Amino acid sequence: MRVALVDSNGAARAVMQGLLRSEGAEVHAFAHGEEALQALADGLRVDLVLVSRHLPDMGALELLRRVRQTPCCAVLPVVLITGDDAEPLRLSALEGGFTEVLLRAAPDQLAPHLRALLRRQIDQQRGRILLVEDSPAMAAATAEALAPLGMEVEHALRAHEALERLEQQAFDLVIVDVVLPGALTGLGLLSAIRSRRDDLAELPVLAYTGYDERVRRVEMLRRGANDYVTKPIDADELRARVSNLVRYWRLLQQVRRQHALMMRQAVTDALTGLHNRYLLDELGPRHVRRAWRGGEPLTAMMLDLDHFKDVNDQHGHDRGDQVLRELAQRLREQVRPEDVLVRYGGEEFALLLPRLGPAVAEGHAERLRQAVAQRPLAGLTLTVSIGVCVWQPAPSPGAAASAEDAAALLRGLLVCADRALYRAKGAGRNRCVVDVVDTVPRV
Ligand SMILES: Nc1nc2c(ncn2[C@@H]2O[C@H](COP(=O)(O)OP(=O)(O)OP(=O)(O)O)[C@@H](O)[C@H]2O)c(=O)[nH]1
């Protein structure tokens, strides 16, 4: 693997270079973005570019954009190296088009990440094939036919052995002989792959069938084989079909990654990295149902910065943004894993806390208030007001709230907390107002 490393910090560059070399990579190191771009334009061929976030002559995004414009490198993987592991930065880097983000860390922590990154890139380029074939002659013929593609071929003799390998390693394609000895034949293996509940269910499968095995061939296709090749194999035909299937799998994975990223973005607030209110809409009704069924308390809190408009007016919008980021971090430190914390909008945050009695909920709100008041945010002493609504429903065992009902109850609970917040503001701010109710309106 050939790597272009672009990092202006000499010491950090030397560490990375050492680690990459110890993983067997050929490293071309540059201190400036322009030097790296020039080398690529002059014909330097690399498989991967690693770019530090801060370069003296250009931003990492600018470098990425220009690498993409260089004819050789339109789809070259470009990885951002950064010491900042904040989620918003990661998301914006991926959104900007970086292939991955690598967290700069101490060498012993960095080494395994770097190794995994190189491994992923190598797998990505070469393709890994699992061949499930009991005939040594066919296995040898396949390996020989695929050698020019530079793909790695792992060989399993039996279907159950193939299933074990699929659990342990990543493959881009399974080639399976329809007829295999043992309880699980090629057909059985195919069914086992297609009935999985994870991404592997879509793994491309190419069937080897005998020329006269028409019925089995059709059955393989019915059960979800993507393609077949008849024996004796024609090397050119096999290579063409394998390349197509591996390309299809790559594309599918790319679409999945983008989809996962979009899903994450859809529920993430870009400024603070907290979830946004859509996650509350998603998770809230489940908490409502549980509370409703078991008669367990469920607490909603609405938390709002006091006089935040003055911060923007007096110190500027950027400082205001910094306040929101630091506030989000402080709140994050205070919540339990089962609590839902979201930026509800503007300078307002919402929390949903299951199973807290009124006294504990009030104590918790008070701790949140103090956590803000006692330490400055972005250098400014600020306060928050918090409206708390503790809902203590009577148990209704067996009575399941419908999805619509649960959503309406959640909205009612938030309205109740919002009203308490309004009272906290009216009573002078920097305080918590707690309402304890046994019913909430469906809103
Ligand atoms: N910097 C920054 N400001 C924001 C953001 N979202 C909302 N705001 C500002 O938040 C301020 C909210 O002002 P108000 O609703 O008047 O409330 P307030 O000044 O905090 O006063 P009280 O809530 O009554 O204590 C407005 O100035 C908005 O522009 C944001 O993402 N960044």
TrEMBL record:
GO terms for cellular component: plasma membrane. The keyword 4Fe-4S does not apply. SMART domains: GGDEF, REC. Its EC number is 2.7.7.65. PROSITE patterns: GGDEF (PS50887), RESPONSE_REGULATORY (PS50110). The keyword Phosphoprotein applies. It catalyses: 2 GTP = 3',3'-c-di-GMP + 2 diphosphate. Residues 2-118, 128-246 form the Response regulatory domain. GO terms for molecular function: diguanylate cyclase activity. Keywords: Phosphoprotein. The modification 4-aspartylphosphate is found at residue 177. Residues 296-437 form the GGDEF domain. It holds the Pfam family Response_reg. One of its GO terms (biological process) is phosphorelay signal transduction system. PANTHER family: DIGUANYLATE CYCLASE DGCM-RELATED (PTHR45138:SF9), REGULATORY COMPONENTS OF SENSORY TRANSDUCTION SYSTEM (PTHR45138). This is diguanylate cyclase. The lineage of its organism: Bacteria, Pseudomonadati, Pseudomonadota, Betaproteobacteria, Burkholderiales.
